[in-house]
Input
Amino acid sequence: MKFTKAISATKYVFEFSKDNLEFKEIVKTVELSADKLVPFAPSNNPVKVEYREIFADLDGTTGYSVRMKSIDETTGIESGYSQIYFETPAEQIFTNYLPTTNSVKLKWTVSPRVTNVVLYTSEMQVVKEVTLSAEQKVLGELTFDNLTIGTKYIAKIFNETNNRGTLNVSTTGISNSTLYKVLETDNATSITTALTNLVTGGATNLTVEFEVGKTYTIGGEIIVPTGVNNIAFTGSTGANGQLPVLTNARFNVQTQVKDIIIQYLSTTSGGNFFIDLGTKSVDNIYIEGCNVSNINSVVRGTGTTVIKDIYVNNSWISNTGGWGMFNFGGTTTLGSLNVSNCTLTEISTRFGDIRIATKVNFSNITCVNITTAMSHLWLFDNAKPSQVSIQNLIIGGPNGGAKINDTNGTYSNIPISYAGSYKTNDLIVDVRPFNSITVVPLNIYGLFVDPANKNFHIKEGIGFAGTGVAGDKRWFN
Output
């Protein structure tokens, strides 16, 4: 709330009510000492000095009236009231959720002003309501168990009747699927054999579950056999954020499949392609909540591969190879490539080698290269123009000492705008700049809390305009 200085005032009093400028019941009173206020807009004219103050602990989606008066405590003189009416937007104190095939753990910003949490079906039928204990309030977390695999729910957190947050959540896996719990001794060959046997037995939708806290030596390519409609390879997140670990893991399909879902796994691929599709057909690829590292590309499509859409969300991708983080060529058909809320580190060569006509959407990405050199972000084919949308990207780092370009060539048919995105000043642009990007007057060590140790929270108090807007949203809290 902004207000201007009263010349003789020693304090300012703000009174809030939940009505329309009637002030029948004052629900909150705040007193501010004049000598502790910091001007937002100083002025040589005292009556033009502007202050801006944040008033917290208001209810969301609520109409408030507020009136303010100034007081000279020495003389006892009080000004008249100035008053306004406003409505607060919906609150969102949920910060994250951690799913398994049969549970979801909700996390929120710790606050004493919470009383209960309700979990609903997607049709808003109550599944369970929990009155929060003192311990749950202090921890800011609550787990709902005994849920249905691969099912969407809606969670709401309340302070009495006031809704302080709403979150769409989902258990992992595929609804009404056959569940295969991977053995710690399993590898790519044994998992492929198990899937084939399940299909022979009549299964069409499969959930392949890896246990948190365990490491699986996959050692090759897991092949989804013909006859599978949809398949999910899924893990879960432990109390300290750990995921099931799969070493040297790769994925492919024998001929075709509708949806491939890879969730909450930490994987390496021995420098190979994570998902390598040659002349295969897939409806949708979903990668959610994963740490994918030591790969060549996340997805490669060659030959007559057909993919409807690819979605990569809430994931961390690192240490990619020279073929580009995504690679599509030949007569591959791809409807769209969508990457959102992801952190990318030590990306080699480029984001994408995309020599087909498709739609590319990157949003809320934090990308930092310290030791690895990326020469450009994109390689396209001007004769097969892609539609490219970049939103809320933060990119930076010394980039292994190399300069960087937007693209590897000039593409007159493929306009790209980085408006609303940011580049730190230690990433040096060569000859093809990022159109409309904002250059931050800081390097990554000035912008992020501890980039050397992969902490990409924005430092407080640096005045970064993209705070809470740009970059991977998981770094907002």
The chain has three domains: 2-87, 94-170, 178-475. The domain at 94-170 is CATH 2.60.40.10 (Immunoglobulin-like). The mean pLDDT is 96.
